[in-house]
Design goal:
Oligomer: single chain
Bound molecules: S-adenosylmethionine
Number of strands: 7
Structural class: alpha/beta
Shape: globular
CATH topology: Rossmann fold
Number of helices: 8
Largest sheet: 7 strands, mixed
Strand content: 15-25%
Order of helices and strands: HHEHEHEEHEHHEHE
């Protein structure tokens, strides 16, 4: 896993400020697809929470007892804490799950696995911090089986303060299975209108966008038996 904290994960931190609008519809898919209809009395974790938006959106729709967001980016965590108001949320700058043994009921990460250097350690730490029957939902489009990824990886490497990994879907499935999880996956299938921005390096063609959010972005569900 990354072993150090950074101020921001992107070299141009202003781009992080736009992530709420870009990621909101994607967080919504995760919330709609999760098996749990209620999070009452539960402790939830958002690993790689950035400025903390996901837990705030989740709480509005499925209130929980306590939400913990962790991220290696100090400035993002500061913003998350400034914005949390009276919600039962704790945001911490850190890169590990050391103190959470069996304390978490449900964990999430959205587009974080590709930035974690030691995925084996991450899967083991997540296994330890989840309660029995606990579930980790992880969304990921930045992986080696996405045909757009070779271009994206080069672009992200130029913008990131963190090392970018190149994990295949099989490697991810094997890693979490080896850690003891039952591994489930589904295509993200974003079933809504997608804003078509001008042709750019990330999405040269309209179909690139449509295919990515339907076919190549994956929602993992790792269940601790
Ligand atoms: C692409 S951003 C996604 C942020 C957020 N999950 C969202 O959906 O908007 C990836 C985030 O993961 C964080 N991150 C990367 N590696 C991490 C690690 N080992 N531990 C904690 N956070 C990490 C980065 O700092 C960054 O905020």
């Amino acid at each position: 896993m990354t072993s150090k904290l950074v101020d921001t994960w992107l070299t141009n931190s202003r781009e992080e400020d736009n992530m709420f609008d870009d990621h909101y519809p994607l967080w919504q898919v995760m919330i709609n697809r999760m098996s749990e209809t209620s999070l009452e009395g539960k402790t939830v974790l958002d690993f790689g929470c950035n400025q903390g938006g996901f837990l705030q959106v989740l709480y509005q729709q499925k209130p929980f007892q306590k939400g913990i967001g962790i991220d290696v980016a100090r400035q993002s965590i500061q913003i998350a804490n400034d914005r949390k108001g009276n919600l039962p949320l704790v945001y911490e700058a850190r890169d590990n799950l050391d103190s959470f043994q069996s304390a978490i009921d449900i964990a999430f990460s959205h587009e974080v696995l590709y930035l974690i250097r030691d995925l084996k350690r991450h899967s083991q730490e997540m296994y330890t911090c989840l309660q029995s029957k606990g579930t980790y939902y992880a969304a990921l489009g930045c992986h080696a089986d996405n045909p757009l990824w070779p271009t994206w990886k080069t672009m992200i490497e130029a913008e990131s303060n963190l090392e970018v990994q190149n994990y295949s879907l099989n490697f991810i499935a094997d890693t979490f299975r080896d850690a003891g999880f039952s591994v489930f996956a589904q295509k993200f299938m974003l079933n809504d209108f997608i804003l078509m921005k001008e042709s750019n390096v990330y999405f040269p063609n309209v179909l690139d966008s449509l295919n990515y959010y339907w076919d190549y972005k994956i929602l993992w569900k790792f269940v601790k038996p």
